[in-house]
Amino acid sequence: MSHADSAPSSITAARYHDLMVPNYAPADFVPVRGRGARVWTTDGRELIDFGGGIAVNSLGHCHPALVEALHEQAQQLWHVSNVVTNVPALALADALCQATFAERVFFCNSGAEANEAALKLARRRAAMVHGADKHEIISFSDSFHGRTLFTVSVGGQPKYAEHFGPLPGGIRHLPYNDAAALEAAVSDRTCAVIVEPIRGEGGVVPADPAFLAAARRACEAHDALLIFDEVQSGVGRTGSLYAYTQSPVVPDILTTAKGLGGGFPIGGMLTTAAIAEHLPVGSHGTTFGGNPLGCAVARRVLDIVNEPGFLATVGEKGAAMAQAVARMGRQHGVFEAVRGQGMLLGGVTAPAWRGRARDIVAAGHEAGVWCLVAGGDVVRFAPPLVLDDDEMREGLERLDRALAGLR
Ligand SMILES: *Cc1c(COP(=O)(O)O)cnc(C)c1O
């Protein structure tokens, strides 16, 4: 039986260019079905998914427990708006608060929206407590926080904000992992420092513990809020439920999305009760945020990721994968190092392959393994956290073949 059965024959990857706004450059294959870490395409190819829909499919494709959660909720209630609350949203908020520093949760539909809420909350709190002068947001070079106008302005990749001006003001960018520059820059005018505990899009670069500690101290000294953007690093990706738990530093606000819904769109902003007070009735909102479908699925994701022993397997599998990729990268002269944490890994291209991460990923597609880039110089691996031994072995074999073919 062909796995392409469900795809109308007139739909091919090439039609993208006739039908869609050209802001993406999709690969030449079109997935139609997925199970675990495997996907099948309209033209009958099978690929091992080492990208997880960009760190989203935390439990792989069509995990039976998530299919069940979605199916059960779909027969109960889909959408009610925030004119009322709903049981799945409260249950998910409860689970998130029990598992983290948080005491209050705001739900939305994406990472950018979670960051938008965090940044607006930080601005509003500073304005209410200290006055309008305390509005400066400090962010870092090569960081990524989403694609809304505010989040591309706060993000540290100027190309994403180019030609979209005028941009929101009061934002400063500092070098990442430079504790001294950070301590010198934070002042009484600072309302928030926003940082990724592991820079994801910007090359898979973990933050130094000393840098995060400096951020915490500087925020404390000037009553600024420390925002951790864990949209990519959260929900088990690094081997802990959230990466912040791997250092003594606790943020004031944490944003989460991507892996939270395991493929169903949902985002969240987590904070303390005292800070949450500064988003009172009417100050912020979103129609779909906290909808029962997304919350029911995310609740099941959290239950599974929090099962005893689950997170330890993420660390083990990530370490094994990092070792294998480093070995074949050296052997074929393609990667000079592998960095990251848990199952968020970056193969750093060797000098001969600088700037050509995209070509390496394309060679992987040909060999039947689906990896991602993180900038021009890094091949990113963010496979399903439930990747099994066969999927890992077969994906790595295919990657090895792809890298060998590049020599
Ligand atoms: C992907 C990402 C975002 C944006 O999330 P969207 O759901 O695409 O809006 C924000 N921050 C980080 C760290 C991300 O990796």
Are any ligands bound, and if so which?
Answer: pyridoxal-5'-phosphate
Percentage of helical residues?
Answer: 25-40%
- How are the strands ordered across the major sheet? 4-12-11-10-7-5-6
CATH superfamily of the largest domain: Type I PLP-dependent aspartate aminotransferase-like (Major domain)
| Largest β sheet strand count, sense and barrel closure | 7 strands, mixed
Percentage of β-strand residues = 15-25%
Topology as a string of helices (H) and strands (E): HEEEHHHEHEHEHEEEHEEEHHHEEHEEEH
**In DSSP terms, counting alpha (H) and pi (I) runs of 4 or more, how many helices?**
13
Q: Given the helix and strand composition, which structural class is it?
A: alpha/beta
* Strand count: 17
Polypeptide structure, described:
This protein has 407 residues and is an alpha/beta fold. The protein has 13 helices and 17 strands. It is 36% helix and 18% strand. The longest helix has 22 residues, at 310-331. The strands form 4 sheets. Strands 4-12-11-10-7-5-6 form a 7-stranded mixed beta sheet, sandwiched between helices. Strands 1-2-3-15 form a 4-stranded mixed beta sheet. A 4-stranded antiparallel beta sheet has the order 13-14-17-16. The two termini are 37 Å apart. The structure holds pyridoxal-5'-phosphate. Pyridoxal-5'-phosphate binds at residues 110-112, 115, 144-146, 196, 200-201, 229, 231-232, 257-258.
